[in-house]
Amino acid sequence: MPVAFSRRVASRVRAAVALTAATLAAGLPAAATAQPWQQYGTENGEWRSFAGDTASSRYSPLTQIDGDNFGDLEIAWRWRLVDEFISKTTPGGGEWWAPLDTIVEALEAETPNLYRTGHRPHFGRFQATPLMVGGVLYFNTPLSQGVAIDAATGRTLWVFNPKTYEEGTPTMSSTWRQRGVTYWTDGEGDERIYWGTGNGHLVCVAAQTGQPCEDFGEGGMVDAMVGLPRADRSQRDYLNALLYSINSPPIVVRDKLIHGSQVADRRITKEAVPGWVRAWDVRTGEHAWDFHTVPASPDEYGADTWLNGSWRYSGNANVWSYLSGDDELGYVYMPTGTTTNDYYGGQRLGDNLFSETLICVDVETGERVWHFQAVHHGLWDYDFPAAPNLLDITVDGRPIRAVAQISKQAFVYTFDRVTGEPVWPIEERPVPTETNIPGEVVSPTQPFPTRPAPFDYQGLAIDDLVDFTPEIREMAVQAVEGFTFGPLFTPPTLPIDGNRGTIIRPPAGGAPRPGGAARGTETGRWLGAAGSAV
After folding, report:
1. What is the 3-state secondary structure (H, E, C) of 83-143?
2. 343-387: per-residue pLDDT in tens?
3. Which of 139, 191, 228, 469 is buried most, with the most CB atoms less than 10 Å from its CB?
4. What are the DSSP calls for 466-492, one per residue?
């Protein structure tokens, strides 16, 4: 494990990437300007969780900024990213500070081929959603550094650097990006910040100081790869990247710290690390349980959906996006991705539970409560791209504690989050099965929700092509000539014998964005964003 380094600082060097805060130049009462922290909590201004709360509401009731005064916003401060100037561990446990490129060159000189070609450490993908607690912003950087800054001034309060870049490039699915951190408090003064790293560790530091919590794991860190089948730190994928990373923030439910993972994607071998969802004691880092998204033995539930014992070597089926939780019920909701390989399943025939599945798990035991598989024998990389939203709704006069899961294929699957019963019928319908890929056996049916209606285009037909003018229409027809295309779930094909492959719509990138959807608590509306593509 690299030697981590924590420091409290007051200023930072310049960098090309910045965090920007805005304030209103006019239009607010003087009292509102003078007391920027008068509103706290999800209801009054704080943002203590990646998605606002463990229910993934992504909703804030703040009204200070609206359509009338948005144009009056001005920059209040800018914060320069700390990843440009970093340190390297030296013999004897010392620190050598230098610009990022200088440190990287020194590491490569010591360990040739340390990084994936073209993917040396960089900081261009600053994706973290800051938390705001007590007037402090908490987040992590592309190089897995944890940071706290004063939300009013942008002054850096502390930085904790686990130095994960000393081990290699994170998995090809994530490379150098992190999406946020997790805040926890016992309500009696113990406040902690957690995040995952590009080299598959969990970090725990004191929220006030950034110092590692010595009672958590080993010096404030837990190696989340320990105990995972086929997870070997000495190995790399075919692109020379690490096999396992964590770049989405964990969730805390009933003092369990639960996380998903990034697993090397689109592998050219059938063997891969399984994307089990893992839970740890939030105080000590002691391992609590694993949920096997890929079975680990022939007698486990779902093992019979992996023909020929293919669970023995298959991997992925990971939660690379985000988790949701219900503290009252003690349930965690896990949206999983596709298993190995994303577009070929000849080596893993069967439905392949629990890939592309929404799973409800008891947080105390890790036992399955209920599940719903949205894609049988996935061949389209239709991972669930976002956390499910926990909603309290009324249908035909009946109150329902619901969970709504957005999907890449532009469906919203809605269930009673206690029982797993669909709120509206979900029908198994026939889908195309013809493919020229040797050994592939396509599932003859897939689930189709009857409500709500799809929120984006699904499948492709000639009539869908652009027709602004006859000339443009003819160009569009020529562009798709020779491709296989059709309704949703048209299977992949090989570009041979005159066939150019399959056009998938929505594509693997999906209709929604990883930010997912939000609930409007005051309006009763559920809101999501979509981007049409092929």
Report:
1. HHEEEEEECCCEEEEEEHHHHHHHHHHHCCCCCCCCCCCCCCCECCCCEEECCEEEEECCC
2. 999 999 999 999 999 999 999 999 999 999 999 999 999 999 999
3. 139
4. --SSHHHHHHHHHHHTT-B--STTPPP
Q: Phi-psi category of 356—alpha, beta or left, where left has phi over 0 and alpha has psi -120 to 50?
A: left
Q: Are 131 and 47 in contact (CB under 8 A)?
A: yes
Tokens matching residue 412: 């919203």
Token pair 């998605």 is at which residue? 51
Rounded CA separation 315/355 (Å): 10
Quick one: CA dihedral 297, 299, 302, 307, positive or negative? Answer: positive
Q: What is the pLDDT of residues 216-232, one digit of tens each?
A: 999 999 999 999 999 99
Distance CA(199)–CA(189), nearest Å, equals 30
**CB-based contacts of 455, cutoff 8 Å, min separation 6:** 410, 412, 511, 512, 528, 530
Structure tokens belonging to residue 136 = 């402090």
With the C-alpha atoms ordered 246, 275, 371, 516, is the resulting torsion angle positive or negative?
positive
| DSSP label at residue 303 | G
- DSSP string over 242-273: -SEE--S--EEETTEEEE--EE--S-SSS---
The two three-digit tokens of residue 497, written as one number: 């014998």
* pLDDT score at 135: 94
Of the candidates 534, 415, 400, the residue with the CA atom closest to the CA atom of residue 480: 534
> How do beta strands 256-259 and 277-281 pair?
antiparallel
- Other CB atoms within 10 Å distance of the CB of residue 427: 11
